[in-house]
Input
Amino acid sequence: MVFEGLAEKLQNTLKKLKGKGKLTEKDVAEAMREVKLALLEADVNFKVVKDFVQKVKERAVGAEVLESLTPGQQIIKIVNEELTELMGQTQSKLTFASKPPTVIMLVGLQGAGKTTTCGKLAGLLKKQGKRPLLIAGDIYRPAAIKQLQVVGGQVEVPVFTMGDKMSPVDIAKAGFEHGVNHGNDVIIIDTAGRLHINEELMEELQNVKSTIKPHEILLVVDSMTGQDAVNVAEEFNGKLGIDGVVLTKLDGDTRGGAALSVRSVTHKPIKFVGLGEKLEDLEPFYPDRMASRILG
Ligand code: GDP
Output
């Protein structure tokens, strides 16, 4: 379960404050020290932790005393609100084109879960009444095309392929036209990843971007890689520009550092989370629910 360690530590720390009728400055300082350690252990970006603790402290000191809450409860409320804020405040939805089709391009490193997420997203949108088309644009990873056809078949969404001999730009262009001609209102492009970010990858993605002009570029990152995922997000955002993040494998991530840092470091929202290998395991990301999950 994500945030397992963090949730336990934060809840223990805050529980100590909860019952107290009065809080001394020392109580607050001690609690904040523990919050800071717990966040660092959860692999949250150092600067994010520093700013977070600073904000909570300032608010705790300046807070108006609410009659309905004990001082301890008030701090818990502040921590909850700041955690929610850290993760983006409200759910960040996909942007749909005013004139369909909406084009969504999924990018990311190999193994992050891009192809699986294409299938999951197509399935989710289909359930919402859309008519998606998947385009197989990953021509480098052996079996990526076949894999997309398999997941497309499972969610009953058509998959446009041209094999692996054409350029990703040409495939995306032809796929787009195919979608327009077949009445698809959402077009999801699976793109190639690499093991590491390199110039060639970025150039290729930039070419697809400038040709197809997607409404959404979603970066798929593996939450289990923690701060590496955040660094990848920063780099993709700087070089390509992204509109949001899909955080995969949250089911296997006990720490949650990426979930807590991505937004604050890149200023781009997490739009979806992957919670398993099955195609129904994709959910919109709700910052407030995540914060409540951490604080119990
Ligand atoms: P790609 O190289 O980015 O296209 O990655 P794939 O879509 O092939 O995914 C790589 C592996 O991660 C596969 O074994 C997927 O089943 C797995 N995977 C993807 N998303 C999730 C997720 O949210 N949770 C779990 N547990 N596994 C996932």
Notes: The chain has a mean pLDDT of 94. The pocket of guanosine-5'-diphosphate is lined by residues 108, 110-116, 193, 248-249, 251-252, 274-277, 281 (CB under 6 Å).
